[in-house]
Design a protein that fits this description.
- Pathway: Glycan biosynthesis; trehalose biosynthesis.
- It catalyses: alpha,alpha-trehalose 6-phosphate + H2O = alpha,alpha-trehalose + phosphate.
- One of its GO terms (biological process) is trehalose biosynthetic process.
- GO terms for molecular function: metal ion binding; trehalose-phosphatase activity.
- This protein has 8 helices and 11 strands.
- By secondary structure, the protein is an alpha/beta fold.
- The protein has 2 domains: about 160 residues, 3-Layer(aba) Sandwich (Rossmann fold); about 70 residues, Alpha-Beta Plaits.
- The strands form 2 sheets. It has a 7-stranded mixed sheet with strand order 4-3-2-1-9-10-11, sandwiched between helices. A 4-stranded antiparallel sheet has the order 5-6-8-7, covered by helices on one side.
- Helix 1 crosses helix 8, helix 2 runs parallel beside helix 8 and helix 6 crosses helix 7.
- The chain is globular, with a radius of gyration of 18 Å.
- Bound molecules: the ligand O=P(O)(O)OC[C@H]1O[C@H](O[C@H]2O[C@H](CO)[C@@H](O)[C@H](O)[C@H]2O)[C@H](O)[C@@H](O)[C@@H]1O.
- The site of the ligand O=P(O)(O)OC[C@H]1O[C@H](O[C@H]2O[C@H](CO)[C@@H](O)[C@H](O)[C@H]2O)[C@H](O)[C@@H](O)[C@@H]1O has 23 residues, from strand 6.
Length: about 250
């Protein structure tokens, strides 16, 4: 298993003394390595086990906070623990959204589908509260950039744009992971929280958490997180270190 940086190990040890404790994480790029096909994004080896160990500790709540819809996250991860599920970048709590926003989302998907179909490798994903345009598998990189620019140009101002890794999402709600983390913290009345994320949408969560919490950026790029690890393989070690400290 990877070594965890010394400063982060110390922060995790301090976190382990606090209860109730929220252990929250993004999924893609953190608990699962990024892959070309979103439906093939399996958890890293050892992740399911360490999440289960953490959730079994007295006073610890594990939350999965993803840009995916909750149903999609549950299906792709295969996780079945007693977790809190937050999907659609904070728009869905524990279950699917009601149908109120679906008509807007479907109209948007219908409008974007012909445009996305003109770029080989591009993929349109219709999600509970958004439509995502994926370009990871577009070999012609200038065409990928041009497509995302055109999608931006077509978006009306009431939509929330969520750029991510090789993806641009247009959301029909303004929820974000920061508001989701604040809501979880309040509902659970936690003393402290850990949050791990890798993408731009995770920055909202990093910024929302108070200084005593532990925020961990996975991978490169500017961040508001206080700690950093290199990749999803290192995340297993971080969670294992916390589980060890809690034991
Ligand atoms: O908030 P997350 O749990 O990180 O979800 C963010 C998006 O993840 C998925 O897309 C990303 O992962 C794919 C699989 O590794 C990859 O192909 C894609 O390029 C990445 O952007 C998911 O498909 C999106 O719906 C999520 O919003």
């Amino acid at each position: 298993m990877r070594a965890v940086p010394a400063d982060l190990t110390a922060a995790l040890a301090a976190l382990a003394t606090r209860r109730p404790l929220l252990v929250a994480s993004d999924y893609d790029g953190v608990l699962s390595p990024l892959v070309g096909d979103p439906s093939a994004a399996l958890p890293s080896p050892g992740i399911a086990e360490v999440l289960a160990r953490l959730a079994a500790r007295e006073g610890v709540v594990v939350a999965l906070v993803s840009g995916r819809g909750v149903a999609d996250l549950q299906a792709v991860s295969g996780f079945t623990g007693p977790y809190r599920w937050v999907g659609s970048h904070g728009a869905e709590f524990d279950g699917p959204l009601t149908g109120a926003l679906a008509a807007r989302r479907d109209a948007l998907a219908q409008r974007l589908a012909p445009l996305v179909a003109t770029v080989p490798g591009a993929r349109l994903e219709v999600k509970p509260a958004s439509v995502a345009v994926h370009v990871r598998q577009v070999a012609d990189r200038p065409a990928a950039a041009a497509l995302l620019e055109q999608v931006c140009g077509q978006a009306d101002p009431s939509l929330t744009m969520k750029p991510g890794k090789e993806v641009l999402e247009l959301a029909v709600t303004d929820a974000d992971k920061g508001s989701a983390l604040r809501r979880l913290r309040d509902e659970l009345g936690v003393a402290a929280a850990l949050y791990l994320g890798d993408d731009l949408t995770d920055e909202d969560a990093f910024r929302a958490l108070p200084p005593g919490d532990v925020t961990v950026k996975v991978g490169e790029g500017e961040t508001a997180a206080r700690y950093r690890v290199t990749d999803p393989a290192a995340v297993v070690a971080v969670l294992d270190t916390l589980a060890g400290a809690l034991a």
